[in-house]
Amino acid sequence: MISLMRIDDRLIHGQVAVVWSRYLGVNRIVVANDEVINNQMQMMALKMSVPDGIRPFFVSVNKSIDLLNNPKSKSLKILVIVDKPLDALKIAKNVTDIPLINLGNYGRVNGEKMKEKKQLSKNVFINKNDELILHQLLDVGIKVNVQPIPTDADINLKEIL
Amino acid sequence: MFGAALSVAFVMFLGNISDSGLSDLMIRRPLVMSTIVGLLLGNLQKGIVMGASLEVIFLGMSGIGGAMPSDYMTGSIFGTAFAILNHQGTSVALSLAIPISLLAVFVNQLVIFIRGLLVSKFNDLADKDNIKGIEYLHYASIFFGPIIYGIIGFLGIFLGNSSISLLVHSIPNFFMEGLTVLGKILPALGIALLINMIHEKGNMLYLLLGFLLASYLKLPLIAIALFGVILAVIIATTDRQILNNKNLITDTNFQNKESNSNLLEEDFFNEQ
Fold first, then answer.
1. Overall pTM surpassing 0.80 (yes/no)
2. Rounded-to-integer distance, Cα B6 and Cα A155, Å
3. How close B247 gets to chain A, by Cα (Å)?
4. Per the CB < 8 Å rule, is A15 touching B64?
């Protein structure tokens, strides 16, 4: 069962590995990303931050859809992490039982001109294209919230986009 | 007082640079910091005792990214220093360390904020291919925080000790007794915070084991800690052996590349 899908352009880091995973009590973290699976170094670094008892998996976006749709996934508690709304949209369209999509950190580290971006919250910055994709993501019908860690306010993306 | 202030400034500097410049050797922990403060202020024994008491309270505290719940390093250095300089016991150290550590978070936030401002400067230098400049700026950002902490350490003791001393001496006796009791409860909170971070089905057994050793066999804590070390070495050795064997198996599997994608699924759904 999927506990949460998180959009976070830093993938696994303290907020995800320690806070969310403990809060949700997951036993699998699936990083669905087409770039990181070709980067041994980055995968190694990301794996290091995962606490004991939780197993991280790095797969392509397509592969993650297969894994998550496998009936055997029902018996696991999975946290899915993607680094951009486009990947989230792809997964949300093809996987049925996602209870919540969480927009954590986005748009600060990918080196685009910050001035042209719209700031949605403290940690989320989007450009025109992102905005379009997020609207499509909302249209899928799954709740999308903006909440860096569980103790922060739970803001519905619908209200601020 | 000048010498004491200088010593505390040095410990503050050392503790902070161990994090920003020496890959965090864990010497920022109260256990180490208070001991060094005790050594420099001429009361090593008191320093160790206070360090240990503070360590249990802050055991479960660890900052995640920039979000630091309380700056236990600054709190324990000042708490210990004030208590030793005013010839007070552990309870005073504890009751000063906690509010100070909460206040000192703001210093940490400020240092992180200013370091963040340097990022655009780094970008500029990178655009201009100014490698020397980047190097210097790196050193500046390593030393900037520790120097701020050192100055705070110096001023805190040099200017603050007389008022803290006045405060400590004006605390009524019944209140002091209350603080002593509180100081005995706080370690439970520290342990609880730690358990909250690391609890796992398997490892709660070890806590129970330690508890039984203490309550039935009346073993002192040091004896239990030593047994713990032996147990840890045994478990780590077996774990390593298991891991080695596992790697052997996966290595042979990797030679058979076609089954790779099935392997991932098998691994993913394998309960562990």
1. no
2. 48
3. 16
4. yes
Which residues in chain A are contacts of B264 at CB distance < 8 A?
Answer: 57, 59, 63
Give the per-residue pLDDT at A111.
63
How far is residue A48 from each of residues A16, A159, B52, B91, measured CA to CA in Å? Answer: 13, 36, 29, 39
Residues B47, B37: Cα–Cα separation, whole Å: 6
Write the CA distances from B183 to A65, A106, A158, B204, integer angstroms: 53, 43, 48, 25
Instruction: Report the alpha-carbon distance of residue B16 to residue B161 in Å, rounded.
Output: 22
Q: How far is Cα A32 from Cα A11, in angstroms, rounded to an integer?
A: 9
Q: Which helix (H) or strand (E) is B42 found in, with range?
A: none
> E strands within chain A?
2-8, 28-32, 55-59, 78-82, 101-105, 118-121, 124-126, 144-146, 155-156
Each residue of A125-160: b (16+ CB within 10 Å) or e?
A: bbeeebeebbeebbeeebebbbbbbeeeeebebeee
Q: How many residues are given for chain A?
A: 161
Pick the closest to residue B207 from B191, B193, B186 (CA basis): B191
Residue numbers in chain B where pLDDT is lower than 70:
62-68, 250-262, 271-272
Q: Which listed residue (A10, A13, A108, A143) is catalytic? A: A13
For CA atoms B256, B258, B263, B266, give the dihedral sign.
Answer: negative
